[in-house]
Every structure is written in structure tokens, then in C-alpha cells.
Specification:
CATH superfamily: P-loop containing nucleotide triphosphate hydrolases
Order of helices and strands: EEEHEEHEEHHEHEHEEEH
Largest sheet: 6 strands, mixed
CATH class: Alpha Beta
Number of helices: 7
Mean pLDDT: 92
Shape: globular
Radius of gyration: 18 Å
Low-confidence stretches: none
Helix content: 25-40%
CATH architecture: 3-Layer(aba) Sandwich
Structural class: alpha/beta
Number of strands: 12
Strand content: 25-35%
């Protein structure tokens, strides 16, 4: 069953087209891997789906549970269940991690008297220390801490669709394995669009679909075997 269906999506930035008719679907409780050469439009797609105002949508739709989210504001998309995990999250000095998580959760789901317990439980699974909650948002975080904090938000908020925009970039092999195993664990509540260049993560997740993007278009889609083909032949030959 498809939970998000993207049809004919086109977008530009200051008149330069970055998406050129994207057709892509994400199935319920599934991982859809999105790969492609640098500059092919993968991160642009993620930003358009989340509602980054830098991007101007000129055609197409993105239907989530029967509703076109492209007509909604960013906060409305979040309430409908879209989440974007960044490769390089912004540092916000003075904004306490606990206060941030409480505010985000309450705005999306209402008050929860057990929220701190839930956060601490999820942090334990992600090997984050309790004093992490007292730190400023992403300030001074190591690369690994930033990535685990993005996953913490997915675990806590349980979005319908989580877009992971190359959060595996720069991870060592143990961290990549941890990311893959955590993602699989979250499939009971969340479907994933995982944008990646790191084929090591694909040793630990088995996506239902794999798509390759080039020049702002999906040029090839297949099952898990497409990853093996990319590894063996590279993008140039298969495209």
C-alpha cells in the first residue's frame, strides 16, 4: 500500500529547474532508497517535499494519505506526518534540547505527561547520555551525535514518512550498521525515503524499492538487486 505518491513533480530555484517531472512512491512500512550522482536533485526533492520556501513548485503533486501536501505550509506538513532529517543540522545556541523536543512534540501531538520518560528511553537505545538534554541544539555536537539526534526525533515523533537526506554521510562502518538496524526497527510506525551515496548502509537495510535520479528525474527504479548493479557497473553504465 502506497502512503506517499509523487506525480509529475517539477520545481525550480530562481528560475533554474531542479526537478523535472519526478514520479516516485513510498510504500507503507517500507524503505525506498534514492541514489544518483552529485547534483542530480535528490536533496532538492527532499526540500520540496518538506516545503522549503527557496523552491518554487511549478507542476505535480505529492499525495499523502489522499491529500496533496504541496498545498500545505511546512508546519502543516509536519502535522500530517512528514519529517526531514538533515545531513548537516543547523546549530541553535541557547535552545535547550529538552525544550526543543518538548515544544516540537507538543505542537504535533499535544501534551504528554510521560514525555521525558519516552525521550530518555529512546536516548538509551541511541546511546545518548542523559546530560545530552541540557545541551544547546546541535551546538558542539559531534557528527555522530547530530545523526543520532535526528534519529531520536524520528523515534519520538513517529512520522508517517521520514526523509533521511544523506545522514549516513561521514559515518564509520559501526555507525552505518547502527543506522540501518535502527531504521528497520522503526518500520512499524514510519516509512522511509533514504537518500544516500553510502552503499555500506545497504548491507543493513533491505529496501522494497530503489530509485536512481539524474538531471532532476527518476531514470531507473527496481528492487534491491539494482544496488548490486550500481556497485558493479557504476551510474554511467546503467544510465
Amino acid at each position: 500500500m502506497e502512503i506517499l505518491n509523487i506525480n509529475g513533480l517539477e520545481a525550480d530555484v530562481k528560475g533554474k529547474k531542479v526537478l523535472n517531472g519526478i514520479n516516485l512512491s513510498i510504500r507503507e512500512k517500507d524503505i525506498h532508497i534514492l541514489m544518483g550522482p552529485n547534483g542530480s536533485g535528490k536533496s532538492s526533492l527532499a526540500n520540496v517535499l518538506m516545503g522549503n520556501p527557496k523552491y518554487n513548485v511549478t507542476a505535480g503533486s505529492a499525495i499523502l494519505n489522499g491529500e496533496d501536501i504541496l498545498k500545505l505550509k511546512v508546519n502543516e506538513r509536519a502535522k500530517k506526518g512528514i519529517f526531514l532529517a538533515f545531513q548537516e543540522p543547523v546549530e541553535i545556541p541557547g535552545v535547550n534540547v529538552m525544550n526543543f523536543l518538548t515544544t516540537v512534540y507538543t505542537n504535533l501531538n499535544g501534551r504528554n505527561a510521560e514525555l521525558r520518560k519516552e525521550i530518555e528511553r529512546d536516548m538509551k537505545e541511541l546511546n545518548l547520555p542523559e546530560n545530552f538534554l541540557k545541551r544547546s541544539l546541535n551546538e558542539g555536537f559531534s557528527g555522530g551525535e547530530k545523526k543520532r539526534f535526528e534519529l531520536l526525533q524520528v523515534m519520538l515523533l513517529k512520522p508517517k514518512v521520514a526523509i533521511l537526506d544523506e545522514i549516513d554521510s561521514g559515518m564509520d562502518i559501526d555507525s552505518v550498521k547502527f543506522l540501518g538496524e535502527t531504521t528497520k526497527h522503526l518500520l512499524n510506525t514510519t516509512s522511509f525515503l533514504m537518500i544516500t551515496h553510502n552503499d555500506h548502509v545497504l548491507d543493513y537495510v533491505k529496501p522494497g524499492l530503489v530509485s536512481v535520479m539524474k538531471h532532476g528525474k527518476i531514470v531507473k527504479t527496481g528492487d534491491h538487486s539494482l544496488i548490486k548493479e550500481i556497485r558493479e557497473k557504476g551510474y554511467n553504465e546503467i544510465l
